[in-house]
Amino acid sequence: MITVGFDLDMTLIDSVDTIVDSLVAVVQERGKSVDPQAIRDTIGMPFPLVLPTLVPDDDPEELLAAYRAHYRVHGVPKTKAMPGAIDAVQAVRDAGGRVVVVTAKQGITAIGALKAAGFVFEDEDVVAEVFSEEKGISLKEFGAQIYVGDHPGDVKGAKVANALCVAVPTGPTSAAELLETGADVVLYGGLAEFRDWFQGWLAAR
């Protein structure tokens, strides 16, 4: 069976505005400020790692808890699928394959965001709170042959798993940067191009 892994934020789901809005709101409630563009530039990285840099004058653990509570209520329900994402998942399933999601996002939030965006996944097919090379460990356990993502950390994870890295420049990282990091394939038009590419890949095997 073919197993294809997908990253979540800005690969399967368009979450940037909801993430930015939630963090800005929480930071303002706490009497502080944060640069929205700086938040956008970190999308795809684990928030526990980036919050101390984004808001250095706040307690990172308290801020993370407040953000996650706000985002689950106000951000998750507004989550939308990236263009072509639902069809990309279906393309794998149409071929008899398995789709898994491997993400840095918190588990309960990841599952909620997938449902809000219209995806159907079993909980055991979603691995959360892993980033970069750690993703590769999970992908290897699934036996994934392909991993699709938008961040250099996704490329590194695919390499650890010896999986083909299919990159989409739909997040903060350009196609050129993804190729420089080691992506095997770049779908310049995003996941709208995935079905055709995947069918060609299957035919060539």
Describe the structure.
It is a single chain. The chain is globular. A six-stranded parallel β-sheet has the order 5-4-1-6-7-8. Helix 5 packs parallel to helix 10. It folds into two domains: 3-14 and 79-204, Rossmann fold, CATH 3.40.50; 16-78, Putative phosphatase, domain 2 (DNA polymerase, domain 1, Orthogonal Bundle). It is of the alpha/beta class. It is built from ten helices and eight strands.
What fraction, in percent, of the residue positions are helical? Answer: 40-55%
> Radius of gyration, rounded?
17 Å
Domain tally? 2
CATH topology title of the largest domain: Rossmann fold
Q: Under the CATH scheme, which architecture of the largest domain would be assigned? A: 3-Layer(aba) Sandwich
The DSSP helix count reads 10
Question: Which residues form runs of ≥5 with pLDDT under 50?
Answer: none
Tell me the span between the first and last alpha carbons: 13 Å
Instruction: Enumerate the strands of the largest sheet in spatial order, edge to edge or round the barrel.
Output: 5-4-1-6-7-8
* N-to-C series of helices and strands: EEHHHHEHEHEHEHEHEH
Find the CATH superfamily of the largest domain: HAD superfamily/HAD-like
Classify the beta-strand content into a percent band. 5-15%
The averaged pLDDT comes out at 97
Shape: globular
Q: What composes the largest sheet? A: 6 strands, parallel
